[in-house]
Amino acid sequence: MAATVSPVKDREDILIEEQGFDDHFHDHHEGDKYQSNFIMKYVFSMDHKIIAKQFLITGMFWGLIGAGMSIIFRLQLGFPEESLTWLKPLLGQWIVVDDAGIGTLAPEFYYALVTMHGTILVFFVLTAGLSGTFSNLLIPLQIGARDMASPLLNMLSYWFFFLSGAVMFASLFLSTGPFAGGWTAYPPLSELPQASDGSGAGMTMWTVSLVLFVVSVLLGGINYVTTVLNLRTKGMTMWRLPLTIWAFFVTAIIGILSFPVLASAFFLVMCDRGLGTSFFLSEIFIGGQALDNVGGSPILYQHLFWFLGHPEVYIIILPAMGLVSEVLSVHARKPIFGYKAMVYSILAIAFLAFIVWAHHMFMSGVNPFIANFFVLFTLIIAVPSAVKVFNWITTVYRGNIRFNAASLFAVGFVSMFISGGLTGIFLGNSAIDIQLHDTYFVVAHFHIVMGVAAFFGMFAGIYNWFPKMYGRFMNETLGKIHFWGTFIGAYAIFWPMHYLGLAGVPRRYYSFETFDAFKHFDDMNKFITVAAIVVFALQVLFVVNFFYSIFKGKLVTTKNPWGASTLEWTTPINAGHGNWPGKIPSVHRWAYDYGKDGKEFVSQIEPLAAGEVSDGEGAHH
Amino acid sequence: MLAVTENSTNRSKIDSKKLALLIGCASIVMMFAGLTSAYIVRRAGGNWLEFRLPNIFFINTIVMLLSSVAIHSAYIAFKKGNEFLYKALLIVSFILGLAFVVLQYQGWLDLTAIGVELTGNPAGSFIYVISGIHAAHVLGGLAVIMVAMIQAFSLKYKVTKKRKLRFELTLIYWHFVDFLWVYLLIFFLSQQ
Question: What number of other Cβ atoms are within 10 A of residue A503's Cβ?
Answer without folding.
Answer: 15
